[in-house]
Amino acid sequence: MSPRSARLARLSRSVTFSACHRLHSKSLSDEENLKLFGKCNNPNGHGHNYKVVVTVRGEIDPVSGMVMNLTDLKEYMQEAIMEPLDHKNLDKDVPYFSEVVSTTENVAVFIWDNLQKLLPRGILYKVEVHETEQNVVVYKGEQTIVK
């Protein structure tokens, strides 16, 4: 491959935010919620220090040598993740979660959707949300087909 050929690369950046939530579905009874979510259905909620890793992908610019300027990515992540989620009660402070159960899967979708509005089209590759060291959700924007 000649030096002038386009090279693709992935670039990742992480942030950590703290938030509390309660796993509770309005579609279920209190008993069903308790059975499904256990201690995570505590009426007073519980908290996490979430780690989010955002990965973008694209061609390495021959002039800058970058897929994307990290300063720009940092600013997008601040707006899409930190401002709406950090030190918040997800269920009470984030309108999205008033109708959507605040599982880590849905937090990943929320972050993906927010980033899609800010990043250049087609560059977002993956959002990883680490709820704990053991529990990680990876979302790549896939959707199922409505049946």
Automatic annotation (TrEMBL):
InterPro entries according to UniProt: 6-PTP_synth/QueD (IPR007115), 6-PTP_synth/QueD_sf (IPR038418), PTPS_Cys_AS (IPR022470), PTPS_His_AS (IPR022469)
Enzyme Commission no: 4.2.3.12
The entry's keywords: Lyase, Metal-binding, Tetrahydrobiopterin biosynthesis, Zinc
Co-factor remark: Binds 1 zinc ion per subunit.
Gene Ontology BP terms: tetrahydrobiopterin biosynthetic process
Top-rank lineage group of the source organism: Eukaryota
One Gene Ontology term, aspect cellular component: mitochondrion
Coiled-coil stretches: none
Top class in the EC scheme: lyase
MF terms in GO: 6-pyruvoyltetrahydropterin synthase activity; metal ion binding
Annotated metabolic or biological route of this protein: Cofactor biosynthesis; tetrahydrobiopterin biosynthesis; tetrahydrobiopterin from 7,8-dihydroneopterin triphosphate: step 1/3
SUPFAM superfamilies: Tetrahydrobiopterin biosynthesis enzymes-like
Cofactor: Zn(2+)
Function: Involved in the biosynthesis of tetrahydrobiopterin, an essential cofactor of aromatic amino acid hydroxylases. Catalyzes the transformation of 7,8-dihydroneopterin triphosphate into 6-pyruvoyl tetrahydropterin.
Family as reported in the entry's similarity comment: Belongs to the PTPS family.
UniProt name for this protein: 6-pyruvoyl tetrahydrobiopterin synthase
Organism: Eulacestoma nigropectus
Gene: Pts
